[in-house]
Amino acid sequence: MKKQSKRYRELAKKVPASAVSLEQAITVLKGFSGTKFDQTVELHMRLGVDAKQADQIVRGSLVLPHGIGKTQRVIVFAKGAAADAARQAGADEVGQEDLAKKIQGGWTEFDVCIAAPDMMGMVGPLGRVLGPRGLMPSPRAGTVTPDVASAVRDYKAGKVEFRNDAGGNVHAVVGRLSFDAQQLKENITALIEYIQSIKPNAVKGVYVRGVFVAATMSPSVQVAA
Asked: From the CA atom positions of the chain, what is the Rg in Å?
């Protein structure tokens, strides 16, 4: 088990003993600033899903109202007019075989990989590299699409992807500690409401079992669901 720093232990003493309102949780988090860098704020949701069942997977993407506070590096697999449109939309790199070879060689210095449907025959074999890093394009996440330009613009604007892990938990970036409290509240609320709206029909019982917010170097604070 990783040893906690003195700073972390001191901050942990300031965490409420029980779940609080989202506004209160954000106030607590904002009090954890003071590091030399702008900490990332994350939302963690514990869901009542069986991650082993394909019909209970919770996965999606959403453009947050205020973005995530960083410009995402986006690459695109496309050709012809679609490739030109992706470049004009701000893609960091656009390619075909050359880009595939680069990734096969171990290059993964990007945050999002988008592919036109006719490129999936080339992208599919890259799953061994992209899959474990959560970078594999998927229709459900909106990263396999004929409109690659719109997808590039969405991710540049602050679109986030999420998928439950093996324990049924969802983790997603929702901003930075430098955001004002209202911006964080609106981003977090938008994501919570969206995840609630895509509850799989196969899920029985309590769907949302716990909601927590945390920053890069801070303890988590439980939010009253």
From this structure: 19
Q: What single string gives the DSSP state of each residue in 16-73?
A: -SS-B-HHHHHHHHHTT--SSS-PEEEEEEEE---TTSGGG--EEEEE-TT--SSPPP
CA pair distance 195, 140, nearest whole angstrom: 14
> How far is Cα 217 from Cα 140, in angstroms, rounded to an integer?
32
Map tokens 């609080």 to a residue: 20
pLDDT in tens, the chain (225 residues): 455 677 777 777 778 889 999 999 999 999 887 778 899 999 999 999 999 999 999 988 899 999 999 889 999 999 999 999 999 999 999 999 999 999 999 999 999 999 999 999 999 999 999 998 889 999 988 899 999 999 999 999 889 989 899 999 999 999 999 999 999 999 999 999 999 999 999 999 999 999 999 998 889 999 997
Pairwise CA distance, residues 25 & 177, whole Å: 12
pTM score of the predicted model:
0.80
DSSP 8-state secondary structure symbol assigned to residue 133: G
Q: Are 199 and 47 in contact (CB under 8 A)?
A: no
Cα angle, residue 57 at apex, residues 168 and 202 outer, rounded to 5°: 100
